[in-house]
Amino acid sequence: MKNGENIRLGISIGDLNGIGCEVILKTFEDPRMLEFCTPVIFASTKVINYQRKMLGMNIAYNGVDTAAKAVIGKLNVVNVWKQTPNIEPGKETEEGGTYALLSLKAAVEALKNDEVDVLVTAPINKHNIQSEEFKFPGHTDYLAQELEGQALMFMVTEDLKVGLLTDHLPVKEVSDAITPELVEAKINKIYESLIKDFRVRKPKIAVLGINPHTGDNGVIGTEDDQVLRPTIAKLKESGKLIYGPYAADSFFGSGSHHNFDAILASYHDQGLIPFKTLSFGKGVNYTAGLSKVRTSPDHGTAYEIAGKGEANHSSFAEAVFTALRIYNNREEYKELTKNPLKKSSGKL
């Protein structure tokens, strides 16, 4: 861990009318969590106090003006705003989106300035957060801009990892968006992430087809033959263990996913439906390909149960642990790949 101390874990609050605050508080209600990290919530002490009372939780927290003043061993809350927002659990409001963005911007800025080491984001509403400052289909694209990387939406558990070739894109646009360059870039991102972030020495990756039955030799589309197969062949020639394209309809049901370290799905639901079915609420959304570590739970705002104390926090807790593991794995990778052959007095 960083300098022998707990990793500084930044947390954006998400939509105030959703279950974000609830799963955050439930996660850190267990004091043992503070042995693993120093959590820093970007919101306001008024909001946390209101949510705590509404949920009947007796959890202590420490208010600070900046993340740099966070206290180790405590749940810290950065006062991003002084106003008292109107919280209406279960309702989509413009105000909910406004404060979700304020929290996210402050958390990302602290991440960029190294005031926190990793970021875990609570769920936003992709509709009410839209504004002049946020014109993105979700966290992934916003973070790619802010952290200057080529982001990969990577859904992960201990045993199952599914990356997306295209993510928040209308189905009618998927085929045109998939190019050899995109396929190669996404596979390379998964490959690199498996090595650096998950300590897989020689990654083995499966690629799912674009069309049903991978096109049936052109009968149901030509994209698999013209785009996927040649690109996969090219990457295999470089020594990477890349296989496919596989017909998506039977891939998970047959258990084929157990034979690979990761799977690249062609579009959002092709990957997320089997992932969420198999992960049983333990899944984590990890944004690979960036200079910083960001994770989130695999669920949304869940307005229908917001404010009722019914939210399951297991996916958020997994997002925390995953962020910490990836951070430590990256630090270890940096240490292991430092050039050990340094010259001394002109000799090796």
Which features characterize this protein?
twelve-stranded mixed β-sheet, disordered C terminus, 348 residues, alpha/beta, 17% strand
- Largest beta-sheet details: 12 strands, mixed
Q: Give the rounded overall mean pLDDT.
A: 93
The amount of helix comes to 25-40%
Q: Helix/strand/pairing class, anyone? A: alpha/beta
Dominant shape: globular
Low-pLDDT segments, ≥5 res:
342-348
Number of strands: 12
Strand content: 15-25%
Order of strands across the widest beta sheet? 3-4-2-1-5-12-11-6-7-10-8-9
- Report the total helices: 10
Radius of gyration: 21 Å
> In sequence order, what are the helices and strands, one letter per element?
EHEHEEHEHEEHHEHEHEHEEH
Compute the separation of the termini in Å: 31 Å
Task: Characterize the structure shown.
By secondary structure, this protein is of the alpha/beta class. It has 10 helices and 12 strands. Strands 3-4-2-1-5-12-11-6-7-10-8-9 form a 12-stranded mixed beta sheet, with helices on both faces. Helix 6 (180-196) packs across helix 7 (223-237). Mean pLDDT is 93; it is low at 342-348.
Summarize the model shown:
The chain is of the alpha/beta class. The chain contains 10 helices and 12 strands.
Architecture blueprint of SSEs:
Layout: E1 7-12, H1 20-28, E2 37-43, H2 45-54, E3 62-64, E4 76-79, H3 94-112, E5 118-121, H4 139-146, E6 152-156, E7 161-164, H5 171-177, H6 180-196, E8 204-208, H7 223-237, E9 241-246, H8 248-251, E10 262-265, H9 268-279, E11 284-288, E12 293-297, H10 314-336
Helix pairs in contact: 6-7
